[in-house]
Amino acid sequence: MMDLGLNEVHLVTDASGGIGLVICEIFLKQGARVTAHYNTNVTSLEPLLAEYGPSRIRTIQADLSDEDDVILMFIKEDEEFGSVQVLVVNVTVSEMTLEQ
Asked: How far apart are CA 10 and CA 60, in angstroms?
């Protein structure tokens, strides 16, 4: 795999499955530090946690439909892992209201 120099902190929303999980895997293989957001199910992220460890990947729970949860997610991210340099908003349209 080509080295893309992705060594910043990346926050991937809805990372516990599908495209979000694959994005996390690709970023980790490229040397990035990844925060993997999930809402209710962290189980699918456990293999990545075991393989890369807490210095490279962490998980964070938040309900993205709750503005206070989103704000807290960014505050925790900044305090515990560093400022987000790359944000991947991976949310299906069916999970969003028109206002969002």
From this structure: 12
Looking at the domain covering 9-88, what would its CATH class be? alpha beta
Query: Cβ of 63: how many Cβ atoms within 10 Å?
Result: 12
pTM score, two decimals? 0.82
20: three-class secondary structure by DSSP: helix
In angstroms, the CA 29 to CA 6 distance is: 9
**Could you tell me the residue ranges of all domains in the chain?**
9-88
Amino acid sitting at position 80: E
| Sheet arrangement for strand 9-12 | 57-61, 33-38, 9-12, 86-88
Cα torsion 41, 78, 23, 57: sign: negative
pLDDT in tens, 64-74: 888 899 999 99
